[in-house]
Each structure stands twice: as C-alpha cells, then as structure tokens.
Amino acid sequence: MSTKSSKKSYEPGERRNHSTVRVGDSLYMWGGFRTDFPEVHNSNEKRMKSSVVEVYHLPTGMWEQKPTTGNPPLGIHGYASAAIGNEIFYFGGDCNHQGCYHNSLHSFNVKTFRWKELSPTTSHHGPMMKRDASMVAMRMYGEDYLVVIGGWGLSYNNTPKQPEAEYRGLDQVPDLHHCNEIHYYKLSSGEWMSPLVKGDRPPPISHFTLASLSTDSAILFGGLNVTEWSNRLYFIKFSKKSLDISEIIPKKPSQWPQKRYAHSGVLINTIDFPEHLALPKENYKSGSYLLVVGGMNSEDCWLLDISNGTAKRFFNLPGAVTDRFYHSLSVWELSPDTYQIIEFGGGGQSSNTAVSQLRRINHEWFFEANPMQPDLDLREKRKRKWSERQSEETSLHVKKQSLERELEEEIRRREQTTIRLRKDLQEREKQLRMTEESFQEALHLVKDEKESAQFEYLRPQLDLLDGDVVIAEKNLFLPLDETSSFRWKKYGFRFQCPQGAVSKGTKMAITALVGGNFILPKGTVLVSAVYAISVSKPLLKPLVIELQHCVDLRTNAQADCLKFVRAPLKSPYEFSPIDGGSFNVGRRYGSIKRDQFSLVAIVAEMSNEESASPSGNGESEENDDHGTSNQDFIEEMVTETASNEAMVGHAEAIAETRLIGDQPTSASQTESLVQIESNNYVNRSDIWYTGMMYHERRDTGYRWITMYTAVKDLDAVLQHIENEHSNAERDVVNTFKFNQGPNGIIKLTLGTLNEAGWSVQPHQEPMELHQSVMDNIQSSPMVSTLRLSVYAVPGVANMPLHCPIDLTGINPSTTIFINRLPSTRITISTGSSSINFDSVRSIPESRREKACEAITNSTGIIRDALDLGTLANKLLEKRIINEREQREVLDDRTGLTTDRRMDKLLSFVRTTIRLDSDGNTFLLFIQIITEEDTIRTDMIAKRLVEYYNNN
Q1: Cβ contacts of residue 628 below 8 Å, gap of 6+?
Q2: May I ask the CATH architecture of the domain 455-682?
Q3: Which CATH architecture has domain 825-950?
Q4: What are the sequence ranges of the domains in the chain?
Q5: What is the CATH number of domain 688-820?
Q6: Cα–Cα distance measured from residue 140 to residue 142, given in angstroms and rounded to the nearest whole number
Q7: Strand order through the sheet with 167-169
Q8: Is the whole model's pTM more than 0.90, yes or no?
Q9: pLDDT single digits (tens) 276-327
Q10: 6: Cβ–Cβ under 8 A, 6 or more apart, which residues?
Q11: CA distance 456 to 468
C-alpha cells in the first residue's frame, strides 16, 4: 500500500457498494452507500450530491472531483456498471430508502461528463427492479450489447418473471427474491432481450464478480445464493440469441478460495513469455487470471488461473488490502509483468485508497502491498509534472480569456459596420425589386399572348404512355442565352437549341420507347425508336432534332424514302408524316426542325412487295404484279439506264461518303449498289440488325443459359437489351442485314463439340429468328431471342468449351462461339494443411461460422504476431473493411487498448465472413496473414486452416 506524500492530496469520502470503472488512464467512481446521503427517493440535496464523479488519474495517483450535467440514476448504490469506449453504463441499484429498487439503464460520457437515460425504471418489461446484480459489455456480430445477470429485489410490483429463470426468497423475508435472470440490452435498438441459456446455469445469485474475458465471453465467481455463499467459477460464452455456461472445476479444492460474497475481482490477461525468447511468441501459452480480494468474512487475496482451474493465495498482506468488503478493485498494466492494483472504499479495516502491485518474476506471481521506493519516487515525479501542467493550463486559460475579450470587441466593431452596410444593401435591393416588378409585369403581358405548350411538362410521362415499352426518360433545362447541343447517345437522340429559342426556365422532357400500340402510314416500316418530347413553355425558335435510324443509305433515292412522322400522345398512336427532314447518304442520323412536339419517329417507305408483309402496324398493301420479281425489275432498269461499270463507279463514290463508325460495305454490297440506284424504295435487306449473345449462370455453377437476341441496330434498342440482361455476362456482338425480303430468316446451326463433359441443348427447334418478329412494333424486342442450355459435368469437363454456331440467312454469314470455363477449385496451403472451395459454389452458413470460430480462437496470437495498422490497411485494400472502420480501430483516442481495438477489427472481419456466401473473405484473410512471410504468421495460418478443416 502506497505511502502518503508530504502534501495531503484530495481523497473522496468514504463509501461502499460502489464501483470504479477504468476508461483510458483514469478511473471513474460514482455513488455508493454513504452515511451523508439523504434516505429519500429524490430531492435537490440528493441530486446535488449524486451529480459529481470522482476521477482517479492513474499516472499520478491523484483524485479529482468533477461536476456532471444531466440527471444521474436514482439507484445510488448496489448498481451494476460496464464501459464501452467513452461511455460508462449503470444499471439498477438501491435508491437509499427502504424497499426502493430500480431497473433503469443510464449512460455517462467521460468526455462531456453528461448523463443520459437509455431505459427508465418500469414494472412492465426488462429485468426485475433489483440491486447487487452484475453487468458486462459484449460485442457480437459487429453490435454492442450489455449483459445483466442475477441480483435481488421485491417479489411484488415488479416486472414479469423471465421464462426459465428461478426466483427464490428468504424464509424470514419472503418478499425479497434472489434471481438468476440473464438479460441482453442491444444498444443499437434500445431493447431488452431474453437469450436462450444452455449448460450450468447458476442458482439465484447476487454480490458476485462478473468479468469480461473477450468480446463474447466472461467469467463469474462467488456470490450469495440466497442463504448459501459460493466459491464456484463459471465460464460464459455469449452468442447473438443464446449463451452457454459451464462450471470450471478446481483441480485442487483444498487450494481454492473459500466461499464468499461482497468481494471484488479484476481480470489479468497476459502471455507467459520468458525473459529471453528461444522460439517465436506463438510457442508460449497465454493466460487469463482472476484476482480476488476480500469479501464478507474473507480477509485474503487469491489469483485464479482460469485456463487450468488452479489458484494461488498471497500471504502476509495487511488488512488495509484484504480486510474489505463491498469495495471497488481496479487494475492498470504498467508492463507485461507488472500490474498496479487500486482499491477504494468498502467496509472493514480501511476504506481509503490502497495502491498495490502484482508482479510476475520467472513465471511466479508476487503481490506487493507496499510498492518499491523507485515506484513511489516515480509517482511523486508524475504528481509534480501534473501540478506544473495544471499551472500552465491555468495560465493559458487566462491568456485565452484575454484574447477572447479582444476578439469580442473586434466582432462588435465589425457587426456595427455590417449593420450599416446591410442597410445600404437593403435600400438598393428595394430599388432593384421595384425595377424587377415592372419588368415582370411586362413579361407576363407577353406570356399571355403566347399559346401554352401542347403538353404539360410536369405531367407524369409514364401515365400517358400506358402499356408501352418505355426504356428511359431524360429531363433537362434549356439554356437561355447561348446555343447549345445535347447528345443522348445511348438512346440515339440529340438536338440543337439555337440562341434565343427558349424563354427563361424552359424545361424539356424526352422519353424513349421501343415498342407500343403504334399505327404507321401504309407502306412504311419503323426504322427508329419512338421519342415522346414535351416542353414546359412555348418555343421562340424551332429546335433541331436528330434521331438515329437503322437503314443503310447508299443512294439519294433511298434517302428520299425516309420520313419523319408524329403522333398525338394518346393510344393508339396513329402516326402521320411531317414535312421537312434531312437524311444524308452514309449517315445514320436524320434531322428536322420542330417547335411543337409529341411522339416523333422515322419510317421508311417500302416497295409494294415488302410492305405487304406483316410489320406490326396492322395494315398492308397487295402487290398486283406477282409475276415479276423486284430483283428482275431492278436489273431491267439498270440495263436501260447505264452500263454496269458506270454504276459501280458511282457506288464507290457513294461509299466514300460514309462516316467513320458506320457499317462497312462489302464487295457484294458494292455490287448491289448498281441495282439499287434506280430504286425509289427501301428494301428490308437494307436494314441493319444486331445480334448479341449473353450467358446467365444457373444452379450450382455447372449450368448456363446462353441467349442470342437479334434486334434492329438502334442504340436505344441495344441499350434496352443490355438493361434487361444487366446481371448476365455479355459475349459476342455481330451486325448484319438479311439476304432476302420481305421476311428474312436467320438460322443458327450448332457445330460439333470436341470437349469432353460438355453438352449444349437448344430450347427450340428449328433455331430460327424471323425478320418479321424483329420488326413487330407491338411487342418488346426481347421476344426475338433463342435460348440454349450449356451443361458441364463436374469432374469430367476439365477443358474450356469452344462450341461453334453458324449464322446463315444473313449478310455477312458468320460463325460465333460459346466459350465457357469449367468450375475450378481454390486452394490455399500452409505447411501440411490446405483449404479448398469451389469458386462458383456457395459456402454454407455453418462453415462460415466455423471460419469465424477459427479466428476467435486465435485472437490472442493474432494480437501478438500482427501489427494492428498493417493488418487494417491490408483489410481495407481487400475491401473486407471500409475506411470508417479502419479509422475507428486505428484511433488511439477512443480509450480502448490496442488489444481491444484489434478485437474490434477481427469482429469486422468475422461480420464480412458471415455475409460472404462464396467464402472468399476467409481465404483473403489467410492470404493477408501469410503475406507477412514469418514463422509466426505461418503458424497462425496453419492453425486457422486446421481448425476449419477439423471441426
């Protein structure tokens, strides 16, 4: 026990049945049973005396009393306490007048010194209103919990009894019941929960020691079982909805603490390292010890080895250390072999502060009630430094107040200047408002003379386009004072807005459609997407609208066959031609000037024979001349007008005008230019189409659905297909035209499979797609799709699949391939052990839990072998944790030790593992450990793998 300095330091008043909670380098003590506390439920005097906290500075050994804000708990003694970060939590307690117990939960912030009530005292739910229970803080699955166990209180006017819990009273006082309740309090939701209790549940108990071993385990020792004292030791393992209790049986009952209650205990966690390490640290065992001091009629001190169920008693200690009950006990680690023990209060021989040391020398433990003189000199030196720092802080505070006064004076001067300038500004704003009001009146007169826009911009567009294939919408403001252009390339739309075309605040809405209840002019086919366009205000000048089409324009005569059409925004949408519009040879966009909008699209006038085929518009024309083919007519016209050589030359000149990015012209297509030159119509063989292949994984990774979809070569349609297959793997894309009209057919023919273990099965026969289906404007483009099932036999299909599919009936004919890889396995080896996963298979939840258990069981050696900062950075790099979690575990200002922050980091890893059904997170974690390339990290990885494989 430390000696007193020559200058008397502040010492808190005597008390018992209290607690001191360590956060960082300070102990925080509140309440306790004191003779000067009023025996009332609540009063101003009681509030005043309970609104202070005693703070013990561990480095200096000095006490300091500090005021608090907020309302402290009414349970002033016999409460339970635990800490998480900078928050200390207090549960229940005795109100200091007869028969008044509580089950409230409060938090106290050691940074702000402010109280906050989390759960009020109530008889409706939660633990019973009681005293002398115990509480620990746990962290499970990334969330913080408080666990409250035992205690005693009144049997009447209390909360409903907890199922499976036991309540037992004294014969002399039957209304006072001890209990063995166990409750969780989830901090994130603020709710009390009753977990499932398994194993050796203690009998009704109070006045016992409960200490945390890890983030999800604790130990319980001693206590009062109604009339019987206890010296039993229990190990408790917590999970999210249950807990498992097992009693630790002493190896030598004769060398074990006697039964006791109202004692105090603290946990000592250490690793048994010799002075000179011959082997890496992981070759030495870690240990957890419980230091037990005093108790009712128990004037002794014991150190319990939890790992092997043995105990050691320390003899020849003064009564000021051992002769205490209802006292507080705290520990502060000075070095891996030296721990400072701080006692305060309680009944017995002494109630003042007693500072002792627990030392380990050559693996033997010694308890020193009177620390060595060098330690005392060091403490006195720290006290002097602390006093000097207090003086410096006082001086700085005086200087700060002086600077604050000067700053306030400067602020007052600037505020006066600001007030003067604000008045001048208000006067100018008043004049400006008057001018603006006059301008607005004139502007309103102009607006009244204009017709309103044909559609309301703010009206929901989708409501007007009922039953149609709407694929995208775009809303934008049109600039007032400059010429601007807008390109919506993904959906084949662009426009130019000349300067002065719109008034202020004009908005524009564009909606792209690729199918609907459209009625086209006779003899035409739709060659663009349909766009619903509306503006919020009348236009002052026309806008230049450009739409993408899918026609291969090679002659001016063909360009003349393309027309812009419009339809009112009312189903069915009956389109009619629009005068104007420009279409250039070799280009895939047509443009038109418009100042009024509705539904706009581009159609192509077809020859009589081709327009007679179904096009989805419900109308057709009959061709009376059945005896002469369109091709014969073209060849006849070519013979009468010019030689083939001249026409070919003209075709080559046209081909040179094509833009970069347009479809290339083959030799056969160049030859066909000779025949098309004199044609006044567009043939269906002039329309570009695109075929796309996608793969979707099914079942366990040994089956795929391969889809081939053919649609018109329009960006809007292609984007729609990609959106529909957003989760699929995109493969080859081929662009083509049909060989013949009016109803071309693309045929898919499977080639021979040369790879063992693979099969490809079409979903329909014959595998054909019809041009008429692709041109059907009444339905979604998705209907023009062929599906094939691709199977890989596990263990047989070892080589990649390369299956050819011939595409015929189109120009150019081509061959595409289905390329698939068989399922692979991932193996990580460490020494003689390995871990295996199918890369495409899901890992069951039970195996993921085993991976988490492997990490939990190796927490101690991970703490010692790995650097916290390096591990956190690598986990962030692999996206196992996020930046917020990295900052949280690396912040040493939280009050948590490095070990506790490492525990927190590992809990983040376990949470990610539980959510990762592919098992990749556990593999990445092992890889990160093995990258350190040391014997220690190899042993850790080996331990993780062996636990996973053998459990």
Answers
A1: none
A2: Sandwich (2.60)
A3: Orthogonal Bundle (1.10)
A4: 10-80+90-119, 122-248, 264-275+283-371, 455-682, 688-820, 825-950
A5: 2.60.40.2660
A6: 5
A7: 152-154, 176-179, 167-169
A8: no
A9: 555 455 554 568 999 999 999 899 999 999 988 999 999 999 999 999 999 9
A10: none
A11: 20
